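hey so i finally got around to running the thing on that chain from the lab meeting. sorry it took forever, my laptop kept dying and i had to restart like 3 times. anyway pasting the input first so we r on the same page abt which one it is
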Amino acid sequence: MRPVTREIICINVAAVVCTYIQVMWAAPDGPSARDLSGSPISYLHWFCLPVLLFLNVLLLTLGKRGHTSFIQGVYSTSLLTACWLVMNYLEFADRVASWSTFSALEIWSSVFMTSVLTIGVCSTVFFFIHYRFIRIKS
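ok and heres what got predicted. didnt touch it at all, straight out
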């Protein structure tokens, strides 16, 4: 296995693990309106697939253009942060907002307040893992 492939696989595994941790940590308590389960783990892998697709396209594009490892880490972490925010919005809308009335502004403000810590911690961890593996490759 080529070293480049090994590093990309490690970055993908880090993205999946950080995504699982972030969504499980930020998921509101209570049953889902979708299937009345208490945990998003049964469908969380469907959230990870688009994240990995976008991340790999971004890594290929940035690698071809010759960006530094720091810039690649910033772009990849920003992409994951945006995806995690959308996932948290979907979870909140499914678990909390579907059972009562919320305006769009109230949903987003609740999601931002509950996501600050979880996304901050998980994005910092992912950035350092990503930066380390891309820097080794360079």
